[in-house]
Amino acid sequence: MAQDGRTAEGARGWGRRDLLRRGLLVAGGVAVGAGASELWWSTHRRAPLAGGPASATSGNRYQDVGTGRLEVVWSGPTQERLVALTFDDGPAPQWTPMVLDTLAQHRVPATFFLVGSQVRRHADVISDRLAGHEVGNHSWDHRDLAALDATEAYDDLRRSHDAIADVTGMPPRLLRPPYGHLGGAVLHAAARLDYRLVLWTLQMVEREFPHDPAGHARRIVADVRPGTIVLGHDVGASRRLVALRGLAEMINGLRARGYTFVTVSALLGAGVPPTPTR
C-alpha cells in the first residue's frame, strides 16, 4: 500500500509539474502560432480569402456571381454516339482556314475556344466563316488564369469576351481556361460571366505520331466514346499539323463508327440519359 501510495502521490506530483510545463508550452505555442499566422498573412495576403489565385471568393462585400452557380464538364452525358471537336488558341491565318475548310467540306460543326487578342489581330480569318460553329472564351492572351487574382482573371476574360462577341457576333457562353488550370479565381470569374466551364475528354497526341497523320487519326478514332469532347489546336508548333492534316481521316473514321459531330453546347444539351457509372 505504501509503495502504491507513493507511486500514486508521485504520479500526482508529476502530473502537476507536467501540466505546468504543458501550460507554458501552450502559451508559447499560441504566441508562435499568432506570429506565424501574421507572417503567413503578410506574405500571402492575396490568397485565399483576399481574392487571390487560390480563392473562389472576393472580398467581404456582396459578390456579383451571375446565377450563383458554375458547371464544369469534361464530357457529354450521353449514350448516343455523339462527339464534339474543339480547337484552341486561334484564330491564326496559317492553320485556322485549313481547319475551317476541312470542316466545311465534311459538313462538321465544331467549337472554337478563341483567344481574344488573336481575334482582334486576325478578325478577317474568321469573319463570316463561323456559321454553324460555336465559339468559346480561351482568355485574352493565353496567360495562366489560375495564377491571377480574382479581379485580374475577370478583367482578362471580360476583355476577351467582348472581343469575341464584337468580331463574331456570338457572345461566348463557354470557357476553357489555358492549360485546363482551374484556380479559385478562374471559377469566380467564370461564375460572374455565367459561363459553362469546359475541359476535354480526349486530347490529340501529335508528339506520338510525327509525320504520320493517318496513324494519329486512327488513334483518336479508336479512343472516342459517346459524349467525348476532343481537344485540338489550330495554332501552335508545326508538329500539331499532324492532327490537322489527318482531320479528314479522323472525321471519316468516326463516321464509319456511327458517330455524329455536334458542338459542345449541343452535346451537353443532348437530352439523353447519362451513361451509367456502374
How would you characterize this protein structure?
This is Peptidoglycan/xylan/chitin deacetylase (PgdA/CDA1 family). One of its GO terms (biological process) is carbohydrate metabolic process. Residues 81-262 form the NodB homology domain. The strands form 2 sheets. Strands 2, 3, 4, 7, 8 and 9 form a 6-stranded parallel β-sheet that branches. Strands 1-6-5 form a 3-stranded parallel β-sheet, covered by helices on one side. It has a single domain (72-268), classed as TIM Barrel (Alpha-Beta Barrel), CATH 3.20.20.370. Helix content is 44%, strand content 12%. It has 278 residues and is an alpha/beta fold. Residues 1-13 and 272-278 have low confidence and may be disordered.
Which properties best describe this structure?
single chain; 278 residues; alpha/beta; TIM Barrel; six-stranded parallel beta sheet; three-stranded parallel beta sheet; 44% helix
